[in-house]
Write a structure and sequence with these properties.
2 copies of one chain form a homodimer. By secondary structure, the first copy, chain A, is α/β, with parallel strands linked by helices. Chain A has helices at residues 15-25, 76-88, 111-114, 130-145, 164-179, 210-222, 257-265, 318-334, and strands spanning 5-10, 31-38, 46-49, 52-55, 57-58, 69-72, 92-95, 124-126, 148-156, 229-233, 243-251, 270-272, 293-300, 307-314. In chain A, helix 1 (15-25) links the parallel strand 1 and strand 2 (31-38). Chains A and B meet through strand 9, helix 5, strand 10, strand 11 and strand 13 of A and strand 9, helix 5, strand 10, strand 11 and strand 13 of B.
Chain lengths: 340, 340
Amino acid sequence: MVTGVDIAVVGATGLVGQEFLRILEHHPLRINRLKLLASKRSAGTNIKVRGCSLRVEETTPESFDGIDFAFISVSGEVSSQLAPEAVKRGALVIDDSAAFRMKPGVPLVIPEVNGSDVEWHEGIIAIPNCSTTQLVMALYPLHRANPLKRVLVSTYQSVSGAGKAALDELRIQREEMKVKGPSIPAVFPFRIASNVIPQIGDFDTYGYSEEESKIIEETRKILHDPDIKISATCVRVPVTICHSESVNLEFTDPMGVRKAHMLLDNMPGLKVMDGSGLMPYPVPWDLQGTDDVYVGRIRRDFSVENGLALWVVSDNLRKGAALNAIQIAEEVLNRRVLKK
Amino acid sequence: MVTGVDIAVVGATGLVGQEFLRILEHHPLRINRLKLLASKRSAGTNIKVRGCSLRVEETTPESFDGIDFAFISVSGEVSSQLAPEAVKRGALVIDDSAAFRMKPGVPLVIPEVNGSDVEWHEGIIAIPNCSTTQLVMALYPLHRANPLKRVLVSTYQSVSGAGKAALDELRIQREEMKVKGPSIPAVFPFRIASNVIPQIGDFDTYGYSEEESKIIEETRKILHDPDIKISATCVRVPVTICHSESVNLEFTDPMGVRKAHMLLDNMPGLKVMDGSGLMPYPVPWDLQGTDDVYVGRIRRDFSVENGLALWVVSDNLRKGAALNAIQIAEEVLNRRVLKK
């Protein structure tokens, strides 16, 4: 067993990087060395982790010398340049960008679903898009018991999925709302306060946004099922943290509500909230900062044979990004596939 | 032709009543007498309409003496008591509550879709639920050309759909957000600021909310098609005005995007916003106070044969309620079916 690992966190000052460091505070992962890396602009700031004040350094290829795990949470463009440099220097990259997810040699991993995929890595393991992860966490236990024929999802995605500047934009627009001031959107194509925007990323020639294509393609890759039929509509809503999803499923065989409830309840990392108690169904505000994927409103979809409808909520910065990254590292350590 | 009508607006101080009066300001409907009615609590206030200051009176059965049209926008419970009194006194009730919508002798009318249904009224004509109206406006021109087999809708419904107190609750929670103060929800089951709530009305034994059942049943009634398969998930979002809907359709025969675009474009009261211009798709913030139903993001749904996906936005207080009510009155006058 490894006694402690050398870790580099690239994008340490970003929303996902910060969440990653918050999780590390109370995480059993043994760390020898922790390097906080960022762009030149963000370098120089100090961040306290596990009692030590660490200086954020500018990322260079040499930053990865001697590093075991490089957790990269930056844009796809930047990651495309940095990740190969890290791999060259022997680091295992766990990448949160879209740059490598669909590449053939790159496992796309949710440990509870396809943890064994980490075994065939070639230096890079990708984290699925946040909206994909929570969807697949809910689909997997059901699909394993009764193959899915069709998945329809409409998302209600929080502003934090678009980064710090997006959260600032929402906050400023909310303040301006009181004085009815003008608001010029910069991060989003329209104002997001008191609005919903059915566009996340650019549209392709078929009219699908990048986020919608990601959900479709990534789900198939993670479930090792290129034939599963999926349609997605991705929408940004004025919520700060946690994505929600309205999901309609069609199974090969009949799937009762109780059976689905039981299968979901037995899934590690997933909690069913269904009908009773203080929280009869999951809502984003009350689940910020939690680790699990929450499923509620499990009900028959009477509009199709073997249909089921669900409501899925999860913290997009945690299981949707930073937590999943740490879990992948644990999976790699447990399976002893750290070195190629 | 009628030279002028006597109108009573019940619930004149409510959100829909106020919107109704705003529309009347510039509407060609000729009015002899306009009576503003409300509960005892709201009676006594003065409202300016078409240059006249009118006193809001408490609603009593006698309020309807000599009235041609009674526009009622109050709770189902209150309307159940008032509407029959108005009918007894010869008024034609145009009711915005859920009390009469599914009753056999009550037409449920969207004039552009089933205007001729006003002809068989027995004293009450019901306005569909706001989330139903905008959905059916988009379904109708497509369904007429190529029968729909299945409709799936996930809604993003604004807070104004729950009334004035709901808007106040959102505003107060937004202000408290800055000071991280506590917030005890009263109108909604959870806080609504920076949250989404997948519950509108109570749940039935199958796990469907009242709003979801309304969409399903009302759509079938308006389209005169009890067999059309529909599934709905209704969600409240922190938007003040305009409901949005993510819709997936399945047709009997192939339905191309261009064909759908053309059919929708020819539908009165509906505008297609698709891909170009300053508003390439409809969003709620920018469409508050407008009269039409807006459709965008028209694209193939590749997960099913003959599938199509849409995004629909409309002002829930206008076409979703007050405007539809006035249009029903016009339809009644045009078809000369005012008196039974």
